[in-house]
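Chapter summary example.
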Amino acid sequence: PGGRYATALELAQRRLPFLAGFTLGRICHFTQIAISKRKLLGYANGRIVPYANSLSVVKAQCAKQQLPHVASSDVLPALPIA
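The structure predicted for these 82 residues follows.
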């Protein structure tokens, strides 16, 4: 899914037993925590993905190796040329 709300809605619609009884707002909050604090989820190509497949992990690996991060066309959409 594309964002926190869409991801939370998808999780709620799957009726997972461990999310039973939680409101959509609470599930959205869980999604935010999974992205920002726990690093379980991240973003790639404007979509929420497992952290291991996210742009954040690519940037972290580059930083750890002290290499510049160069945006790749398969990770980020191409920008129009002016």
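To summarize the output: Residues 73-80 have pLDDT under 50 and may be disordered.
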